[in-house]
Design goal:
Two copies of one chain form a homodimer. With about 400 residues, chain A is an alpha/beta fold. Chain A contains 15 helices and 15 strands. In chain A, the strands form four sheets. Chain A has a five-stranded mixed beta sheet with strand order 6-5-4-7-10, sandwiched between helices. Chain A has a five-stranded mixed beta sheet with strand order 13-12-11-14-15, with helices on both faces. In chain A, strand 11 and strand 12 form a beta hairpin. The longest helix of chain A is centred in the last third of the chain and has 25 residues. The interface between A and B is large, with 49 and 49 residues. Chains A, B: It comes from Streptomyces clavuligerus.
Chain lengths: ~400, ~400
């Protein structure tokens, strides 16, 4: 990994901020409010955190000293003396890296987690961590060189498999064998010269949709990502739930049919064997070759391989075999989600990932299955919706992850 | 409901305690420590809650004024001046009521949640709330008359269906139709003259096993109760997770086989249609009548009906049809638990309820299924065990529920 974005940074402000953390819960609360709500007046912030004018002044002064926040002119009058505005330091930059099975997304955000720049590059995760992170860091360097950042104050990284969260190390990831035990957090932290946190890609998607997408203000929800594989982010009381060993949400091998297809994992009838990006590609090629879908056969002849996008396009063109594949897949994943809804009783189910290009046909069959199979008490007010953020859900969640960390007391 | 345990109470101490609640988090912490650890010295409590001697003295004095705690002599010397012991008021009494589908358990505990007396009575929950609570209150009165309590400082109540927790009202409970919307909390609170909380029976079982049973010190676990129906208590970070509408853990209608048995709920292949106390009774009677099990046929002829206990006894006597019923049931429930383990990645799975009389044959087939179907990362260190508390799990959890409430700031 030859890229070191730290080399030409060296600004005093950045170095000071990098070691700065809020000293107490009040300061953490103030940073969170400024991140989620943008610049605000001291007076209004004082109301929100329920601190007296003098106590607020103490905390704000300490935060100003850290360089994490700056003064931002005078606020509009509320009657009486005008209050001073404060905001998060405008030079603060977070890096979000979202490693998928077949592509890498990299984005730079400001302190309010707005995506200032975003790059996507195809990449097979099986090439291993060294190659993948060389790619990701060169994308980060490109964004930096474009003037979006002088350096990074923190980075969040998502990988498509279970992660031992405290250490930031992938554990026995089925689709990325070369990554087992690779010290992602430590290595990237050294390369980038900033704090780094690593999480499962689906957890980051959930956090992204929670921060800026369809799950804003929902406390308990599920975020099901259907890409090459299938995973589920679980949010309980506003916090991602990772489970005892970091594998919570690993729903791809839940059995949907005891007499179903055999799965590479050794069991039969696993969800992923019946529906996922990979299973759909196989089924589409089979439909093309068997003559069931002339539409897919044309596409297969032209491209040599098929994917979810081909099935989506063929379905739009009225291809019945493709429509059937989507419906059948939606039934299978809907069957699993129905069970999870009965068990978890969420306030919202978000569907995301590459396969969501299949759109409303997929969503309709998922909904049908869930509303039919789960109990009315659990589905009565349950929205099942597509994610809003698309490709930037994961990188937004990555920035959220690291900012949550940096904006909480050390 | 003609019984009013408040009538002859009237002790000044009790009335004072009934309105007493800790004023802040320190006091709540002290009450919790005394409940879970028993009497303790001021010095040691001060260390545990990290309060200075003088601040501790203030909080302890305030708690002494409420009557919730009392002085308890001098502690053993730690060198220097001997510290004073304190403890929870020895007259504090909690009532736990656990309504099952076919029986009622009532217990009285002291402040440390030790069961001082426990009664069980067969009762069909379908007789409705008025009849069931008359029964429960007469059992409570009997325990009281036996000298175990002069009155109750709080009561926890479990019902076998989903509950709108804040109001303490059962909602659309499938096996107890007459209970829908019945104001259990309000009605019982008036009858008993003390604060009451109502929860799902499985949540209480989970809290009981957490407080005094096999789940002590486990943060994230599942408690699967297999009785007439099947339900699951979910504990996240030491707290019961109830879901958005209070129906979390309602796993009886998760589909185990798309081409399985038809279920009264209208779907096919629901877990409860394949295995539960009720399904097992039906299958056992069918095995008796069809001649597959002479052992069960003898028992059916003698008793006119069969239950889990008959299957257990027949299996112990070597009856192969009964063993097969248990194994097949264990496979079905194991299949669902395998999915939940993949999804939730718990640190422990507890199996409880009446059907656990089937013992280790059942447990073995559940384990086999879970260890085979869930991913190794989720099952590597996962104990799957029977509950320890048996019939008092629910009532212990009920006492824990109300004491958690009374021992937290109002």
């Amino acid at each position: 990994m030859g890229i070191s974005p730290t080399q030409d940074r060296g600004r005093e402000g950045q170095l000071r901020r990098m070691t700065a953390r809020p000293a107490n819960a009040h300061q953490a609360r103030l940073l969170g409010l400024l991140r989620d709500g943008g610049p605000n007046s001291r007076a209004q912030l004082g109301d929100l955190v329920e601190l007296s004018r003098s106590k607020l002044a103490v905390e704000v002064d300490r935060l100003l000293e850290t360089g994490l926040i700056v003064a931002d002119g005078l606020a509009a009058s509320r009657g009486g003396r005008r209050s001073h505005n404060i905001r998060l330091a405008p030079e603060l930059r977070f890096l979000g890296i979202d490693i998928g099975a077949t592509s890498v997304d990299v984005a730079v955000t400001n302190a309010e987690l707005e995506v200032l720049g975003h790059l996507n590059h195809p990449m097979d995760v099986r090439e291993g961590p060294v190659a993948v992170f060389e790619q990701a860091l060169s994308m980060a360097a490109k964004l930096r060189a474009g003037g979006l950042a002088e350096g990074f104050d923190g980075a969040g990284i998502g990988v498509p498999g279970p992660v031992r969260f405290p250490e930031g190390v992938p554990v026995a990831p089925p689709i990325m064998p070369g990554w087992d035990g690779f010290p992602v957090r430590e290595a990237l932290s050294q390369e980038l010269g900033c704090p780094v946190l690593v999480d499962n890609d689906v957890n980051l998607m959930a956090m992204g949709e929670q921060h800026a997408g369809v799950a804003r203000s929902v406390g308990d929800f599920l975020c099901v990502k259907i890409g090459t594989g299938i995973g589920c982010g679980i949010v309980v009381g506003g916090q991602v739930y990772r489970g005892t060993t970091g594998s919570a949400g690993d729903i791809g091998h839940i059995q949907v049919d005891p007499s179903g297809r055999s799965c590479p994992c050794g069991n039969t009838g696993c969800l992923e064997a019946h529906f996922s990006g990979a299973a759909l590609a196989r089924d589409a090629e089979e439909a093309a070759r068997s003559g069931r879908s002339p539409e897919l056969a044309v596409r297969l002849a032209a491209a040599g391989a098929l994917g979810a996008a081909d099935v989506a396009a063929a379905a739009s063109a009225g291809d019945t075999a493709s429509l059937e594949l989507i419906r059948e897949g939606g039934n299978r994943v809907g069957q699993v989600i129905a069970g999870l809804v009965s068990f978890f009783n969420p306030g919202l189910v978000v569907i995301g990932g590459g396969v969501t290009g299949l759109g409303h046909t997929l969503l309709a069959s998922i909904r049908t299955q869930v509303y039919r199979q789960s109990l009315p008490l659990a589905t009565g007010n349950l929205p099942i919706v597509l994610g809003e953020l698309g490709q930037v859900a994961g990188v937004t969640g990555a920035a959220r992850l690291i900012s949550d960390h940096l904006f909480s007391p050390a």
